[in-house]
Amino acid sequence: MIDADALTVRYRRGGRRRTLVALDGVSFRVRRGDVFGLLGPNGAGKSTALRCVLGLIRPDEGRVAVLGERPLPGAGLFRRVGYVPEEPHYHLYLTVEEAVTFYTGLQGRPPAPAEVAAALDRVGLAEFRDLRLSKCSKGMKQKTGLAAALLHRPELLVLDEPTRGLDPIVVKQLRDLLRELSGQGVTILLSSHVLPEVEAVCNRVAILRAGRLLLEDEVSALRRAEIDRYRVEIRAPDPQALPPIVQVETHRDGLVRGVVARDDLPRLFELAAGSGWEVLHCNVVERSLEDSFFAALEGET
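^ that's the sequence the OP posted. Answer follows.
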C-alpha cells in the first residue's frame, strides 16, 4: 500500500541558520490490511513523513509510492485515500452536515444525503448534524473529519495525531472505530506519541527520532516476553530480610514487588520455605511497547 524508500527532507531556513533535516533516509513499508503507527517524540519527522505519503511535500531525496503510484497533488489515487490532519481547519459557519457534504464533494462526487447521514451516525454525530462547527468541541471536529474521510470508503486512511487533545471517551470511540475499519480491510497509517493507544490498535510500528528511523517491527515482537526474568510479589513484613537476588521495585504495607532472574527462582522458593515471608505471585516479565520505544530511543537494539 505504501512503499517509502530513503526519504530525505530538508527545510531551508533564512539567514545564516543551518538547514533542518526533517527526514534523513527514512524507509518503511505499509502492507495491505496493516494498522501501521509512526511513533516518535515531537519533532521526530512523523508529520513530514505523512505529508510525503500524501504528496504534499516532495522529498529532496528518495521516493514514495502509494497504491503503486507516485503521490502527486491531485492524482486520481487519492480518491482511494482518506486523510484527517492533526489540526483540521474548517469553515466554521458550516454545520456538521454541511461540512461533511462539502468536503466529501471535493473528491469529485457530491454525496447523497442518505450517505452523509450514515457517515455521521457511524462516528456518533447524528444528533449534532445541525450544529455549527464554531460551536463544536475538538473531538466533534475530529469526528467530522473522520466522517468526511470515510464517506467515500477509502482503501487507505491516514491520520495525523488522531487522539491529541481528545477526552478519554472520544479516544475509546475512535479506537473502536479504527478496529472496526481494520476488520473491514481498511489499511490505516497513523502518527502518534500516545503509546498505549498505538499499542491498542496497531499491528506494526516504526519509531523515529530526529528524522531518523530507529526500528520498524511487529508490535507483537516488541511486546515479547523476557523469559530470563520473572516479576514476583512477596508478602514480607521486613523487606530488609529478603535475599539480594530480589531486585526490589516497590514495597508497601508488607507487600514487596520486584524482579528475580530465572536462574535464581529455585533459590527464592527454597529460601521462602524456611522464612517468615511468602511468594504470592510469579510471572514472566513482559516488555511493553513503551519499554521497547524508550529502549530504541536509548540506542538498544
